[in-house]
Write a structure and sequence with these properties.
Length: about 80
C-alpha cells in the first residue's frame, strides 16, 4: 500500500494494472502471462506455475482487457 501526501489516502501499487486485486506473487503472475503470450493453453501454465486453471483464465481476461484499453488510448493519440 502506498500513501499519497496530497490527498491523504492509501492505495495499491497495482491499481490500474493487470495485477489489480490479484493475490498471486508478481513473479508467478508474470510467469503465467509469459506462458500465455508464448501461445500455451490454460492447463500448461497452470501446471508449470502451480496455480488453478481458473486463475490462468482470469489473468488472461484481465490482460486482454487491459491491452485493449491501452490500445484504444494510444491509438487515439497517434497521427492518421
Amino acid at each position: 500500500m502506498l500513501y499519497c501526501r496530497t490527498c491523504k489516502r492509501y492505495f495499491s501499487e497495482r491499481k490500474g494494472s493487470v495485477l489489480w486485486q490479484s493475490r498471486l506473487a508478481e513473479d508467478q503472475a508474470l510467469s503465467v502471462l509469459e506462458h500465455i503470450a508464448a501461445g500455451c493453453g490454460v492447463r500448461q501454465p497452470a501446471r508449470r506455475v502451480k496455480v488453478h486453471r481458473a486463475t490462468v483464465c482470469r489473468l488472461n481476461r484481465q490482460a486482454g482487457g487491459h491491452a485493449a484499453r491501452t490500445h484504444d488510448e494510444v491509438g487515439s493519440l497517434s497521427p492518421p
